Amino acid sequence: MQSADRETDFGVYIHWPFCLSKCPYCDFNSHVRHAAVDEVRFARAFAGEIAATAARVPGRTVSTIFFGGGTPSLMQPATVATILDAIARHWPVAPNAEVTLEANPTSVEATRFRGFRAAGVNRVSLGVQALDDAALKQLGRQHSAHEALAAVAVARSIFERYSFDLIYARPGQTPEAWAAELKRALAQAGEHLSLYQLTIEQDTAFALLHAAGKLVVPDEDLGRALYDTTQAVCADAGLPAYEISNHARPGAECRHNLIYWRAHEYAGIGPGAHGRLDIGPERRATATAKRPETWLMRAESLGHGVETDEPLTRGEMADEFLLMGLRLAEGIDPARYERLAGRPLNPQRVALLREQGAVETTADGMLRVTLAGFPVLDAVVADLAA
Ligand SMILES: C[S@@+](CC[C@H](N)C(=O)[O-])C[C@H]1O[C@@H](n2cnc3c(N)ncnc32)[C@H](O)[C@@H]1O
Ligand code: SF4
Question: Mapped to the 3 state alphabet, what secondary structure does 33-94 carry?
Answer without folding.
Answer: CCCCCCHHHHHHHHHHHHHHHHHHCCCCCEEEEEEEECCHHHCCHHHHHHHHHHHHHHCCEE
